[in-house]
Hints:
Structural class: mainly beta
Oligomer: single chain
Strand content: over 45%
Radius of gyration: 16 Å
Amino acid sequence: MGLFSESVDVSCAPDGQPQSLQWNGTTYAVCAEPLRWYERRQWWAEESRAPLGSGPGVVDHEIWRVQVLPANTSGPEPLTLDLTRHIRSGRWRLLRIHDALHPTTA
């Protein structure tokens, strides 16, 4: 699994669910139901104090796990990615690429 942070362009359905994304010059279509959860940020390491009433985006950040395939193709295995959306700005970042390789037996 790769862990990093890179900007991606994400198109969403009206309910906010990711439908497609552009990353590294390729357009990908979401091919399975995405999964969403929230993770605690270490906001105290990034900011001296949390502004009163700021709540979402300061303490927690939204994570989406999506399975994608390059648009207009049907590859053998979808790519599984973890994306985060910055609540205040609406910008998306790629956080993790999950290893799609199956373990081999000797």
